[in-house]
Amino acid sequence: MSTYQKPPKSLMRKVGKAIADFQMIRDGDRILLGVSGGKDSLSLLHTLLHLKSYAPVKFELGVITVDPEVESFEPAKLKPYYEALGVPYHYCEQPIMEQAEKHMDGNSFCAYCSRMKRGIMYSTCREHHYNVLALAQHLDDLAESLLMSMFHGGQLRTMKAHYLNDTGEIRIIRPLAYCRETLTTDFATDTQLPVVSDSCPACFSVPTQRVHMKQLLAREEETNKHLFPNLLHAMKPLMDEVPQADD
User: Fold this and answer.
1) Most CB atoms closer than 10 Å: which of 144, 145, 221, 224?
2) Which residues contact 247 (CB under 8 A, 6 or more apart)?
């Protein structure tokens, strides 16, 4: 199994700019990256490893997988891969789908699963003294969230690129916030990253609002090549809740 892969300059530039614009990584940070085994989280892992090797800001990096115990999803098989990369690996199992059937309000398994996973990741950060949690959502995800919030919630909001958790002791960052999904897809394909297929099969079992928004954006982009740059420009004021380091 191959291990470290150098990210392309196109991906590094986008990630580097997002990190700089939002001051995501600071000297001495201990960063825990959520990895599902999908193309986005694996691409971000290699990008952060590359950044760690040369950036003037020194930081530590670990990874965490929260296994919701969904049938056919087997993220644990990548444990030797993370070990070969030399990153501390935290693996947490919880029967989230089974719990959702008993306790979920409404009909969004994805939202319930996300909340449960986030709680486990926060607990792991506290237990192992990580002060930053990195997540691998990209620009396409942020754009889809913006439309979902406006269309279904009547609110102007999207995923944050940089924010504090409710108790204020963990910073959450999304270094792929400026990256199109095509960048991670191409990187994963070109370097044959060991992507775990159907990293969330429960979410793909039925059509979702997010899938509908993805299709809508794809249709619009066919006639407007500036669609995503324009959406990013509109979203930037909504993407940061953390004071600058020197404020």
Assistant:
1) 144
2) none
Residue corresponding to tokens 């909340």: 115
**Alpha-carbon span 172 to 175, nearest angstrom:** 10
| Token pair belonging to 45 | 């892992």
pTM: 0.91
- Which letter, b or e, does each residue of 148-187 get, where b requires 16 or more Cβ atoms within 10 Å of its Cβ? bbeeeeeeeebbbbbbeeeeeebbbbbbbbbbbbebbebb
The domain covering 9-238 belongs, at the CATH homologous superfamily level, to HUPs (3.40.50.620)
Q: Where are the alpha helices (DSSP H) in the chain?
A: 9-21, 39-54, 79-85, 96-103, 109-128, 139-153, 181-190, 201-204, 209-223, 227-235
Residues paired with 134 in a beta bridge = 33, 173
Domain ranges of the chain: 9-238
pLDDT digit string (tens) for the chain, length 247 residues: 458 999 999 999 999 999 999 999 999 999 999 999 999 999 999 999 999 999 999 999 999 999 887 777 788 889 999 999 999 999 998 877 766 666 666 556 667 777 888 899 999 999 999 999 999 999 999 999 999 999 988 999 999 999 999 999 999 999 999 999 999 999 999 999 999 876 554 554 444 678 889 999 999 999 999 999 999 999 999 998 876 665 5
